[in-house]
Amino acid sequence: MSFATDALARVQALADFGPLPRVRALHLPPLPAADAMRGEFAALELEDGSLGLSYVLLGDTWAGLRRHAQRHDLAGADALALARGCAGGDPVERTLGFAALNALTRRLFDQAGFVPPASADSLGALDPQPGETVGMVGYFTPLIPRIVARGARVLVVELRADLAGERDGVRVTLDAAELAGCAKVLATGTLLLNDTLDATLAHCRGARALALVGPSVGCPPDPLFARGITLLGGSWVTDGPGYLRALAAGESTQDLARKFSLAPRDYPGWEALLERAAVRRA
């Protein structure tokens, strides 16, 4: 069973507690400049204000959403039906599906009064040590100098052949099988969107620390922890209306959301959250 199927089974349980809010709108960012670090994420807004984020610069996803804007006018759409797209093969539908999955997850967290801990470490609590090789799935450019400065080596798994090679304590490879030599691995939420999570984790069985990070990582944690992920890092929006205004304008959302880190020891579990939500509604 794929991660997406597992996550959908959790979210489906929300419908057993009554009608779910429908979609209010899909908010798309402007296309960022090639060297910009903003505008990478869309936000799906539910009628109750819950937001779910999803990366839109994978392949031609952003262009597909913009090109077929009328098709993706999602006001009034069934959020749960939209979420089911995350298990399909179409990249755009997967992106929208994960946004809906994330929005419904945030709704449950809010209803249960659960707030994940704030992140105190952008390195995913990996604590690089001299002589270690830290694996990266995706090029976390700002983090690499900090890891190398601690005396660790970095192995980056990339899709771009032009980046392959070795330089300054960093090896960039196209072969994910090389992750087998890494005791610690940091990966982006893109693995969820391009359906490579399970295949990548198969190469990480020897890792004792596996961090999955990024604003797209807002879905049910249970199937991720069950697959050996030791830390989830995502974005917790603290000012929904302000976040949406900044997103649409291509401005920084840094002060409108905070980063969180969630480890299995800090997470009560999906069933416990459902029970908490039911008690709070009673």
Characterization of the model:
This protein has helices at residues 3-12, 61-67, 79-83, 91-112, 144-149, 190-193, 197-201, 222-226, 240-249, 270-281; strands at residues 23-27, 41-46, 51-55, 133-137, 153-157, 165-167, 170-173, 184-188, 209-213, 231-237, 257-262. With 282 residues, the protein is α/β, with parallel strands linked by helices. The strands form two sheets. Strands 6-7-5-4-8-9-10-11 form an eight-stranded mixed β-sheet. Strands 1-2-3 form a three-stranded antiparallel β-sheet. Strand 4, helix 5 (144-149) and strand 5 form a beta-alpha-beta unit.
Task: Fill in the keyword field for this structure.
three-stranded antiparallel sheet, globular, 282 residues, 30% helix, single chain, 11 strands, alpha/beta, eight-stranded mixed sheet, Enolase-like, domain 1
